[in-house]
Amino acid sequence: MADPVLALRGVERRYRTEAGELPVLRGAALELHAGEIVALVAPSGTGKSTLLHVAGLLEKPDAGAVLVEGRDSGGLGDDARTALRRETIGFVYQFHHLLPEFTAEENVVLPQLAAGKPRREAEARARELLASFGLENRGDHRPSRLSGGEQQRVAMARALANAPKVLLADEPTGNLDAGTADRVFAELLAAARGRGLAALIATHNPELAARMDRTVTLRDGMVVPA
Predict the structure, then answer these.
(1) Judging by beta carbons within 10 Å of its beta carbon (0-12, 13-18, 19+), is residue 215 exposed, middle or buried?
(2) What gap in Å lies between CA 162 and CA 179, rounded to an integer?
(3) Does any domain span residue 25?
(4) Residue 26: inside a domain, yes or no?
């Protein structure tokens, strides 16, 4: 088997509270390979979001290592971590976090400009991605004029804008009604599979989890098969 695109090795993460340190991850280990879509199913409060934030280089672990394409991110400075995250990892949240003052197309263009892509090329890719999610006629709409499902589709297009190798999603359909969630989730899976991404998707829905390649959970701060 090829080397993992993303690997967590003995990751620990603790938070300081008024009552003292709160350990959330206690030696968590996980590998994601290209083309593999993994469901993360665990009760609220067990550390799903923390695991995704550490895996996505949004938080630094207190111990252990996060390797992206074999590269240990632990020794990187903030700018290098940001660049590695921007170039390699796409993130979809439960709440879309679109910039309200920009159109759908502009929301997909902006991360590409931040990565140094020429505007014309970024705009062409944004239109291509929006069309792949059935939004070819909604590019000039601001988020307030889009439905919840459309907003989340724009967020998915934005996550794919810089052609990441890894897709991380934190309850990406948790804020949608059941019918819309099913359609949006199917599009997310199709996009990930079609691009051969390594994906880790947190969901509380066992039916959605069953559509992925395998399922893991968090138990006592460790990643284990569900």
Answers:
(1) middle
(2) 29
(3) no
(4) no
In which residue are the tokens 């993360």 written? 40
Asked whether the predicted pLDDT for residue 1 surpasses 70, the reply is: no
Burial 97-109 (b: 16+ CB within 10 A, else e): ebeeeebbbbbbb
Residue type, position 24, single letter? V
If 0-12 CB within 10 Å is exposed, 13-18 middle and 19+ buried, where does residue 77 land? exposed
Contact 161, 128 (CB under 8 A): no
CB 68 within 8 A of CB 52: no
Q: How many domains does the chain have?
A: 1
CATH number (domain holding residue 125): 3.40.50.300
pLDDT band (50, 70, 90) for residue 175 = confident
Q: Which residues contact 209 (CB under 8 A, 6 or more apart)?
A: 39, 41, 203, 215, 226
Domain range for 55 is 34-59+75-217
Interval 63-83 mean pLDDT: 91
Nearest to 60 by CA among 31, 85, 43: 85
Mean pLDDT on 56-79 = 91
